[in-house]
Amino acid sequence: MVVVLEAEVRERPKSAPTEGDTASRRTERKEPRSPVRWALLGVLFVVMVVPVYLLVVNAFKSQQDILDNPFSIPLSGLTFEHMSAAVSSPQFNVIGGYGFTLILVVVVDVLCILLAGPAAYAIARSLKRRTQLVLLYFLAGTFIPGAAVIIPVIYVLREVGLANTVTGLVAHDVASTLPVSIFLFVGFIRTIPVDIDHAATIDGAGRYRTFWSIIFPLMRPAVVTVLILNSIGIWNDFVSPQILLSPSSGHYTVTTAIYAGISQYSTDLTKVFPNLLLAVAPVVIFFIYMQRHIISGLTVGAVKG
Amino acid sequence: MVELAELSAGPKQRGRRGARLRDSAITLGMMGPAVLLYTVMTVVPVGVAVYLSLTDWDGFSTAAFTGLDNYKHLFDDPSSTDAWYVTGLIAVAGTVCMVGLGLVYALALKGRSRTNSFFRAVAYFPHVISALILGYLWAAILGTNGAVNNTLAKFGIEPLGFLFDEKFALISLIAVIVWAGFGFNVVLFVAALQTVPAELLEAAAIDGASKRQINLRIVIPMIAPVVTVATVLNLVGLIRAYDIVVSLTGGGPAGSTQTFTYLILARSFEGTNVGYATAQAVFLMVVSAVLALLVTALRNRQDQAAAGQ
């Protein structure tokens, strides 16, 4: 209860009137007493957290222990054997997948900002109707179900000589991030006063210079949103890397490595749980640290995009 | 493109033709790379899909033009109509459950306290994890050797075919999808609930309205526009369900959980009739576009309503 009140006070702006504080304290006090509410929250906690608990605990148990007592923590029977086997597995390597996926995420993020930033700036600062049509042209991309039209993408990549290459995958991924990124950037740039641009022009800055040195630094909230949205999207993407990079390319992302491994050994739970834990851990840790940014970023991206 | 650049010159030129042209060139230079990449990698494939859907292309040999045959086939091919039934059921049942649970938990967690934001994160976290991985996790829990069946076995209950029995598999799939997705709605609805003015609720309470009456008659109608947007977002997302099907059920048993996207990709890789598979993809795209346009229309109406207040 004390914790709740402290948080309540901390989240409130300092200038808030004191009546507001007492009023909200009164409603706060009422809520935790409701047994229905606590029953709901108890069910929520159990249903959401038990699968994660099973994932973590069973990653360190033998097959027999997992089958006999999936929920228990056998203090003497815990083993790192399967986890270390998963870490060093030569067949499908989730840890190796981290490296490739991370590089993919960074490259796509950087290219997306480099392309979407200036494009959004040009669109946001133009008064011509025709330029606004360009924005609609990009927005139409959000209607396209990516997985369903992946086969024609192979067709196009084959024509331009990028079939089954990392470059081809990067080109496809960057293109898929552009519509929402440009849309969010345009919306944000329009809230920045044009006078700032004029001042920069008077000081002799060209339009690229004005954008990268003056406007772009002001776009930090929008850039953070776009980076989170794209990074999580690319990290979790399965269809594009699976289909645009065949196993013969030798490159695996975390999801395609998991697919290659688990679909083969789905009955061997000592392979399933450690590999899944390895795949989930970075995202969950990232989520715990960046929770507030991630939740607001993903929500804004989905609703406005 | 040149025409477009001329028209989109920056706002500050004073009739000097040279300056205006230079400015147009810069605008074009700024938009060009993004427009080009997006066109080649996103728009052209859609055009290719429409073209291939009118042929009998098998992935290798030259394609023969077959007109609208593939589209006629869409409605009399049982595997295609079955996939639509499965996809539609997932989309509708999943959306109803996700919106319902989203509302219940948003009302329980709307207050700005640390406890509430903790529980919101608990509801939300699957949204950041790949659907493929969530599917494998639940497959390991619900499978024949999974935690649930092992626990049931201790009480002498025969293992249930959550994923291997045609009666249960689709229900299990929908349940996992709802588990993974309703937290997003909770966060969305909480954000909307926090904008409902407190004075309104106090006034209703003073007038003797019960908590349930306040929720049903005042709070939910006030956030109705957000609920509508969430509904359509959920529908659009769920008719594209693929990753979680691959990892949880693999479309089985006996094709009883094959969604439309699953069917399209499975059929493309059999390589027998890619043309037909792309016709299905184009059809799915049209359905998504109609639903997505609906979001835009609803959002505009919502913005206008907000502006009119």
TrEMBL record, chain B:
Q: Which keywords belong to this entry?
A: Cell membrane, Membrane, Transmembrane, Transmembrane helix, Transport
Q: Where are the transmembrane segments?
A: 25-52, 83-109, 121-148, 168-193, 214-239, 274-295
Q: Which residues form the ABC transmembrane type-1 domain?
A: 84-295
SUPFAM superfamilies documented for this protein: MetI-like (SSF161098)
Membrane topology reported for the UniProt record: Multi-pass membrane protein
The subcellular localization recorded is: Cell membrane
Instruction: Give the CDD domains listed for this entry.
Output: TM_PBP2
Instruction: Provide the family line.
Output: Belongs to the binding-protein-dependent transport system permease family.
PANTHER family per UniProt: ABC TRANSPORTER PERMEASE PROTEIN, DIACETYLCHITOBIOSE UPTAKE SYSTEM PERMEASE PROTEIN NGCF
> What protein name is recorded for this chain?
Sugar-transporter integral membrane protein
